[in-house]
Amino acid sequence: MSTSTPAVDHLLAAADREWRALGIHRRDRATLAADLRSELDAATADGIDPATLLGTDPTGFALRIAEEAGVQRIPPRYGQVLGVASVGAVLSLIPGYILVIGLHQAFVAAFDLPRDVRVPVWLAAGVFYGGVAAVVVAGAVLAVRIALRDVPRIRHTATRMTLLLPPTIAAAIAAAAAFGWALDFPLTPLAIGTEAAIVLAAFLAATALARRKSVTAAG
Question: Which residue from 85, 78, 77 is spatially nearest to 200, judged by alpha carbons?
Answer without folding.
Answer: 85
